[in-house]
Design brief:
The structure holds two protein chains of two kinds.
Chain A (H helix, E strand, L loop, with lengths): L1 H20 L3 H21 L3 H25 L7 H7 L6 H17 L14 H9 L3 H22 L8 E3 L6 E3 L3 H8 L7
Helix pairs in contact in A: 1-2, 2-3
Chain B lengths: L5 H21 L3 H25 L4 H31 L4 H4 L5
Helix pairs in contact in B: 1-2, 2-3
Classes of the chains: A mainly alpha, B mainly alpha.
Chain lengths: ~200, ~100
């Protein structure tokens, strides 16, 4: 069982390194999905199956898919590889790598005494549900308010008032038909409109 | 059952957090910066799960659930802002965006 934890940990670290260094946005997102799924395996080994399921379903299955939607809408795949290649020179990694390396050394030094082992049996969804309905009820209400704020904010930011309806002839009848969803698709797909 | 020392789980969370931090500092594309932020949030959630599993309580998973809700709301608003930025400035390069006047 411990071996699974270390193997999944190695996969998580390796896929995160690969994700950070990719030039193609979709490749980076796929490596991010691998990293999240390996962390879900680690949750399962640590005796948290509910968190493992949530990680796979919500994080890898909804949030990263949202990223993919935006990447596809903005055509960030092939067109931006050249610009990323120009930006990511080999010397650019040294500064942040040194600083992050110092932080890792500090963390390893701070937790070196925490030899307490992760206890045996798993904490199932029932106990998590009891905790959520009991002591953490206020947290649940606050999280729901936060999600409502995120929903309203995303809707308001995404709303584009079409002042003059874009019309195009209907294929079958030849009459003019309002096509309001075209502008965003056109904006992303016209020549030279990829991200500079 | 499993005898994984808490130290290893916390070190793994620290390594993932540092990798996300490197990605945040190095990349110039806004989408990659948001992706690195997700990695950092996920590593914080891993640290909470390790702690909750060590004491065999549900509190770690509850905190992970809240972190998940925070990440979801942040990603929704962040990506909506990214779309607006792209439609307005035709660029997702944060270095040039920081000098633009909206």
């Amino acid at each position: 069982m411990e071996l699974i934890f270390y193997i999944a940990g190695a996969v998580a670290v390796l896929s995160t390194v690969l994700m950070v260094t990719r030039l193609h946005a979709v490749h980076a997102l796929l490596y991010l999905i691998v990293s999240l799924l390996s962390v879900a395996i680690e949750f399962f080994v640590l005796g948290a199956p509910f968190a493992a399921a949530l990680e796979a379903i919500v994080y890898a299955g909804a949030i990263i898919v949202l990223f993919l939607f935006v990447v596809m809408m903005l055509n960030l795949g092939r067109h931006t590889v050249e610009t990323e290649k120009q930006w990511l020179t080999p010397g650019i990694w040294t500064g942040p790598a040194i600083l992050a390396g110092i932080l890792i050394v500090e963390i390893v030094y701070l937790v070196r005494g925490a030899s307490a082992t992760v206890a045996g049996a798993s904490v199932g969804p029932k106990e998590v549900g009891i905790a959520l309905f009991g002591p953490y009820m206020m947290g649940v209400e606050l999280a729901s308010m936060l999600l409502l704020a995120g929903l309203v904010g995303a809707y308001h930011l995404g709303y584009r008032k079409v002042t003059q309806p874009q019309t195009q002839p209907d294929a079958r009848t030849g009459q003019e038909r309002v096509d309001a969803a075209r502008d965003l698709v056109l904006a992303s797909s016209e020549k030279g409109s990829h991200v500079p | 059952m499993t005898q994984i020392p808490m130290r290893d789980g916390l070190i793994l969370a620290g390594i993932l957090f540092s990798l996300g931090l490197i990605g945040l500092l190095v990349r110039r594309n806004l989408i990659f910066i948001l992706m690195s932020l997700e990695v950092m949030l996920n590593s914080a959630g891993l640290a909470f799960i390790v702690a909750g599993s060590r004491w065999r309580q549900a509190d770690g998973q509850v905190m992970f659930l809240f972190i998940l809700a925070i990440a979801a709301a942040e990603v929704a608003v962040g990506l909506a802002l990214t779309l607006r930025i792209y439609l307005r400035f035709r660029s997702l390069d944060v270095d040039t965006l920081s000098g633009m006047r909206g």
